[in-house]
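Quick log. Single chain, no ligands specified.
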Amino acid sequence: MNNLKRRGLMYVMSSPSGAGKTTITRALLKDNADITISVSATTRPRRAGEVHAQDYYFVSQDEFRDMVESGEMLEHAKVFENYYGTPKGPVDAALSQGRDVIFDIDWQGTQQLYEAAREDLVRVFILPPSRADLEKRLRNRSKDTMESEDQIRSRMSKASDEMSHYQEYDYVIINDNIEDAIVKAQLILDAERLKRHRQQGMTDFVKDLRDGL
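-> predicted structure:
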């Protein structure tokens, strides 16, 4: 029995809307007991049924500003009139316990995370197999979400900009089959967990091995 412990990692997945990121994220959460999803802080009002510290950390604008100024946010952004961000404390606690934290954020948030915690970060970008396929997925989804034609066009326009940032990521998965994409995302997670710098106590472990020869 070895005494090795593993530091958790920050597993970021980004993609244009409709590329399959949410489905892959849910599969990883379901199949990995030692992974949790990052919970963001927000200044927007709590909606019916939402739970504080489960759906979001609901804070005032003054509280959010104080968290940013005191360095308690790993990344943050303003979306319309509300602020969203990732509190540092819960993420650090999970990583130190050997738990991985999965992030569903865009390229801008990923850049901020890279600046704040690059040693812990694993960045994965999900691409659709073609523009036509992405549009088809968005149109199929709009039947449930009741999105308008203008909203679909807006998402397609935004997707073009988002996809231009794929080079800023460590891994790229082309999601032409969702089951295969989930397998690839899991393989990346498994390999990153074995990185040498995440294996705490490795120096002493190898020393003991050598001394026993």
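Helices lie at 21-31, 61-69, 88-96, 107-117, 131-145, 149-163, 178-193, 202-211.
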